[in-house]
Amino acid sequence: MDDVHEIFAIRYAHHDRRSPENFIGGDPHDILQPLAYFVWAIVGPHGTFVVDTGFDEMMAQKRGRTMTKPIGEGLASIGIDPAAVEHVIVSHLHYDHCGNYDLFPRARYHLQDCEMAYATGRCMCHTLIRFPFEAEDVVAMVRKVFGGRVVFHEGTEQMAPGITLHHIGGHSRGLQCVRVNTRRGRVVLASDATHLYAHINEGRVFPVTYSVAETLEGYTTIKKLADSADHIVPGHDPQVLTRYPAAAPQLENWVVRLDVPPNGV
Ligand SMILES: [Zn+2]
Ligand SMILES: [Zn+2]
């Protein structure tokens, strides 16, 4: 079986906030609804694929987020040496998905064409649109282009048997999600195509968006790509840490396995 992979979600940071901040139009319940920050690792017969690279302690302070464990420690906890990783998939170029850019010296970075165009073009002239981007992150990616270390993708492409990239757009113009074949079926790492379970389940939209229409269409696409609703993994929902089992007892609330069914299913 050369197309069956394991998947790990590694939580690295946290942000307490109230629910009205998470939805266009607010939220009448006004409850505590924190965001968790993750990177993901796909491990299988074709090597290790890291999905997104998070941010570091300096960025956590700048953005008022709480770092829980550095990315490098999270990867090391499941036996992944960042220096040996050859493939990094970047879902999009927001500050919480593409920092730590010296952590993977051997890796090639996989990005949608239109995300780079978006992050370096006229839309960044607008304060509101560039807010979730960091100039240094984008510049670091441009340097990797010139270093021959970026692989551009357009639309849907296969990374390896059982691993495909899918352009979604919406939240960021070139946002892509990753579909991974596992022993429980096809799992979609949605990243910010749905921040929380509530977004896709209730057809609501996170306030940072390039296109509301594309975001909503994206939910339909993700549902088609995944084998069931339980095969969709949102990008920032702390519930991921309780729905899925820890990768090892000491990794509780830090690293969970996504290629096994969620608890209680
Ligand atoms: Zn984002
Ligand atoms: Zn994000």
Task: Supply the key terms.
265 residues; alpha/beta; eight-stranded mixed β-sheet; five-stranded mixed β-sheet; 8 helices; 13 strands; 23% helix; globular; binds zinc ion
Helix count, DSSP H or I runs of 4 or more residues: 8
In total, the number of strands is 13
Quickly give the structural class: alpha/beta
Strand proportion, as a percent range, falls in 25-35%
Name the bound molecules. Answer: zinc ion
Described by the principal axes of the CA atoms, the overall outline is: globular
What is the CA–CA distance across the termini?
25 Å
Radius of gyration: 17 Å
Helix content: 10-25%
Write the element-wise H/E pattern from the N-terminal end onward.
EEEHEHEEHHHEEEEEHHEHE
Q: Outline the biggest β-sheet.
A: 8 strands, mixed
Uncertain ranges = none
| Averaged pLDDT | 97
Description:
The strands form two sheets. Strands 1, 2, 3, 4, 5, 6, 7 and 13 form an eight-stranded mixed β-sheet that branches. Strands 8-9-10-11-12 form a five-stranded mixed β-sheet, covered by helices on one side. The protein has helices at residues 57-63, 71-77, 113-120, 127-130, 135-146, 197-202, 212-225, 240-243; strands at 6-15, 35-44, 47-51, 66-67, 87-89, 108-112, 150-153, 156-160, 163-167, 176-182, 185-191, 232-234, 255-257. Helices cover 23% and strands 26% of the residues. With 265 residues, it is of the alpha/beta class. The longest helix is centred in the last third of the chain and has 14 residues, at 212-225. It is globular, with a radius of gyration of 17 Å. Bound molecules: zinc ion (2 copies).
